[in-house]
Amino acid sequence: MIEALVNAFRIPDLRKKILFTLAIIALYRVGAHIPVPGVDPGSVKDLVQSGAALGLLNLFAGGALENFAIFSLGIMPYITSSIIMQLLQAVIPTLERWSKEGESGQRKITQTTRYMTLAIGLVESIGLLSVFQAPVANGGLGVSFTFFNQIIIVISLIAGTAFIMWMGELITQRGVGNGMSLLIFASIVARFPVTIVNAVQLQAWYATVILLAMSVIVVAAVVIMERGQRRIPVQYAKRVVGRRVYGGQGTYIPLKVNGANVIPIIFASSILLFPATLAQFFPKVAWLATFSNALSGGWLHITLYALFIVFFTYFYTALVFNPIDLADNLRKNGGFIPGVRPGKQTEIYIENVLNRITLPGALFLAAIAVLPQILFEFDSTASPLLRTFGGTSILIMVGVALETMTQLESQLKMRHYDGFFK
């Protein structure tokens, strides 16, 4: 590992990319501590730490929300917009056509995603203002902003979202790894020191030790699942074109065990937190408050959370991986799976394999997500630790780290250096 890092810094081009990535991440962390004008960060911090929905947003924003900084919305508007665009490609013919047009179509999708990100940022910034201006009895701050202050705050938050989006794209183009993923990684890692200090202040040192030990085990399990693949062998028939012979070689189709990654957890969390969000906007509706409280914690929440994760794992995998298109592309290129007839039989075979390997991936995601909440049911003093050292955070961090290391590995291999994976 150390030798591979040293080799990476020996290559001038790769060294510039790494330093550029670190500089952008440092700039991102600075913006998380610059508050928007006209807001008292101290009162906002208490409100954020007491709410489940705001606490989750604060985690992905790297603590910017509790400071009510210009980066308070974090990268989540862009992530939400990207997921929506990916889902819409399966139902809107125009978007599906763009996705198949190569680079020009991808530019159109990217531009639409940017506009949608700004629209989502506008809605979320107005929502935050509504929550903070709500009466204290209803879970708000009871602060009344002037119309001018509201405009300034909304513009600052939207500008911060656009700036984060720009920084993420800069990392992707000129740095190392996926820029948006690395910004989320930096946000979660930045919360670790603060969380450990809070745990020690709460005299939960034993929980800290136990959870750190469990985190090591969870990291190992996540690495195994992230690298796990089901490789379907594919053989291509020989074709003679003029004097040349094409094809005849064997390859494979890699199907990841955890192909949906962390998306099902985000979907399930959003659905379960939606009633609580509505209850904050409509505090006088008694049945909505009762319903949201029932879904906000306890064994009912844990059970529904696990079931939703399993469902959305299958749902998202079916959206992003189409066995019909894959079987059709294999047939057009003269490829076939040994022992399986091309066409409909190949489609059925791939679909059956995908369904079988998706089940352990879905159960693993559900276990990773609900395990911290089960621990919290038995030990409530571990609350700040579970929020940061939870399985979702570890899953995101390990996935981003593996993705970045894979890109560095390919750069090193191109220059005949030993990489990270021996």
Percent range of helical residues: over 70%
Number of helices, counting only DSSP H or I runs of 4 residues or more: 18
Could you tell me the strand content as a percent range? Answer: 5-15%
Which secondary-structure class do the elements indicate?
mainly alpha
DSSP, total strands: 5
The geometry reads as globular
Mean pLDDT, all residues: 78
Short synopsis of the structure:
The protein has 422 residues and is mostly helical.
Description:
The chain is mainly alpha-helical and 422 residues long. Helices cover 71% and strands 5% of the residues. A hairpin with a 2-residue loop joins strand 2 and strand 3. Helix 6 packs across helix 7 (103-133), helix 7 runs antiparallel to helix 8 (147-174) and helix 9 packs across helix 18. The longest helix is centred in the C-terminal third of the chain and has 35 residues, at 344-378. The model has no long low-confidence stretch (mean pLDDT 78).
Features:
globular; about 425 residues; two-stranded antiparallel ribbon; about 5% strand; about 70% helix; mainly alpha; single chain; three-stranded antiparallel beta sheet
